[in-house]
Write a sequence for this structure.
């Protein structure tokens, strides 16, 4: 019922960024390669290219997230776009309105690129299926479904350190069941040919059919991360604790937290990712988060370049794209 | 006590946009003609003209309205202005301060164009009467008094479909008593020569002296909209229900809601306007709001161009204006 | 424990603006002279210079202050910077995070200039001590410690009227004990050579060791302001009243409020400053705040130019600075 087809136009070109599911390896690599060129822009003193000048990017957040909103806002501004921030979670006007009415109105204001976060799985797909050709939608997280730009920046970050995806062993650790990030990471890693993907967490937080995604499941982290090249820690949503799916934070850390001792079970050159913000002492030890194997802040930096690439590409404004 | 004179300078040139009352037909047409040229800008891929570059537009909202704020923000950015959003309804600092102190401070920051929404009728006039020559005020809605840019975008939208205002029959339906929008629409329509304006609503929501504005009043919608060319639906403020001025939403819809059946009583080519956001099933049926006679989304689009025109014109930055 | 050394680089160049303590007269004058050139920009119709084009200024406010945030936002935009506003007081995401994690993340997004307001004294120093060379921090108020840009705009304003600082008598009146503004003013005035600085307020609100700062203390305003050239009124934090440090507002006004009668005790050409927003009838009489000796709105205007100067200077982008 939610699939990736709606994100392509009739010629198979990406016109929305809704999910990493269904992206080919070539399509993922096209985004990553373009992001590499924007990473250079961001290293310069004047971090600006005029690719989206005169365009308006709307950050339409039905869940408040200052951090994610900031990364999209910066990416848009570095492409010289104007940015309109709409925090629907706080907006009285927009609250009573239907999602499609809100979109139709912003569309009528000739806004063409929507970055959308929504608590319901499938919300971005739903919008993408109901807009005209000139509108582009980026899914910045929908319920427990997908968060494609996060997954793309993760594989971008991994590629900079370990480009041979086919040979990598990757562990994803945490609350797999509720994680839109993990779902998107698995699809992106598989598109790039990664064969050994291990998902690790308490049994109650591993989805029943997870192996159908082409991964192996472990509830013992010490065995699960043995000899991996990449460890991706998920952020623990603390509100899950209340619903009795999880033990206390202390027990969680004892069972599945990434400590320096555990990290030694992975390959000596393994890298550690986390989508942030980290809960130090819950899912990750500070010595690991701040340690030499952590690439957590690189992920943040790369996130700007990857989001610039997605914005430019789906709107047809990347260098060399036919108009 | 509130009149339009303060919006003109000594030479009769518009320097604020406070009300449509007192505007001549020529003055309204000047705004609409300029807006036509900006509508072309908004159809282009790069929607930007440099007319207000280096100027700062302050959106000073004493009532939160994401939608209205967004249209002014987009209009300002498409004129290349910088935008400062101040949500006074939420601002602790500014809350205790007097209105004139707030304005004096923003003025001291060399902001010159204020877009102001305020719950009190006359607030924008009051400010306009107390600022120096270099400051321009746009009334984005003051209490139950006026909302001139809404009325201007409405007549702009009507003109694109039916330019012969003298021959039009126009129905305005809803809560006339509390509507700043309706008041401004009536003045704008009359400035353009419209003779047959009918206001329609429950007796309790028709102001006693409404006919002094040059309109006819009806409390029977079926008779009121017979053979009209234009139907303007007003948004129902749901909070009025609590004050016993109105029956239930269901009864309201039965009595004064615009259904497809009722719409058939108007001319076959009649157009339907609504300032948005619509309360579907309360003042308007979805089949009408989304139907072929609806121009509701055109109004939104035109709102950007009309607001650009007002901003450029009153600040003396329209093309061809003497400096 | 909090000192100004951290704001200089190894060559003694200012790279953060944390406090006026420790600034030499030459360093203060360099900022004021640069601000004079920006004041000219702000008088022009197009108020924009491209000195910070492609840079991102982050307004990181752990205490909400619409007014202060607005002045920094305008200053940044007039330097052509992009601005990212983060209202941490309202942000759910950022609330749980440590200060250094928040900064590290924004730094990873390649933001290089942080304007920071924080309720804890020393917060800006703490951050400045933990960031890499490319990052610049402006303290927009930390607890009861410092507010250097306010003090700099105050001496800028004084200099325009009375440039011979060595000969000036300056009175600072109000709640000296809790005022970060007063502390920063005293350091800036002394750096410029002012010898006669008098602090005036109720005994309970005069810090015990205030005279160690090189000022004289008075609890009788009528004697304290006799023959001064400059009177700086402080804003009364009304919440202090509850803690029994202060009498009622009426008693406060009777004892230490600046009335037209009191003002006559100063020199006839004395000027009156106030950081705003004023509590009329509490610390200052309206006839004084709006009178001919008041320079309160000039302070607001000058605040933009001074903040532009600080931003350009500490980032090494002032005209003529080596790259």
């Amino acid at each position: 019922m939610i699939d990736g087809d709606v994100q392509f136009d009739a010629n198979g070109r990406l016109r929305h960024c809704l999910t990493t599911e269904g992206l080919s390896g070539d399509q993922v690599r096209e985004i990553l390669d373009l992001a590499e060129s924007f990473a250079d822009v961001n290293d310069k003193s004047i971090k600006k290219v005029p690719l989206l000048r005169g365009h308006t990017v709307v950050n339409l957040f039905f869940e408040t997230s200052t951090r994610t909103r900031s990364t999209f806002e910066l990416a848009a501004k570095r492409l010289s776009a104007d940015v309109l921030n709409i925090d629907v979670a706080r907006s009285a006007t927009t609250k009573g309105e239907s999602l499609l009415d809100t979109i139709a109105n912003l569309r009528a204001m000739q806004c063409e690129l929507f970055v959308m976060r929504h608590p319901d799985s499938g919300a971005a797909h739903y919008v993408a299926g109901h807009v005209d050709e000139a509108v582009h939608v980026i899914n910045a997280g929908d319920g427990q479904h997908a968060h494609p730009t996060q997954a793309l920046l993760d594989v971008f970050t991994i590629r900079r350190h370990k480009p041979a995806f086919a040979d990598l062993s990757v562990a994803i650790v945490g609350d797999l069941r509720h994680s839109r990030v993990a779902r998107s990471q698995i699809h992106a890693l598989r598109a790039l040919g990664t064969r050994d993907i291990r998902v690790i967490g308490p049994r109650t937080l591993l989805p029943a059919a997870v192996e159908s995604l082409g991964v192996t499941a472990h509830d013992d982290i010490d065995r699960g991360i043995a000899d991996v090249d990449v460890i991706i820690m998920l952020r623990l949503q603390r509100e899950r604790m209340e619903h009795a799916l999880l033990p206390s934070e202390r027990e969680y850390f004892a069972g599945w937290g990434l400590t320096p001792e555990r990290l030694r079970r992975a390959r000596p050159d393994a890298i550690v990712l986390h989508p942030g913000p980290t809960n130090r002492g819950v899912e990750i030890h500070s010595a690991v988060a701040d340690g030499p194997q952590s690439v957590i802040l690189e992920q943040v930096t790369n996130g700007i370049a990857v989001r610039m690439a997605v914005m430019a590409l789906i709107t047809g404004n990347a260098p060399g794209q036919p108009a």
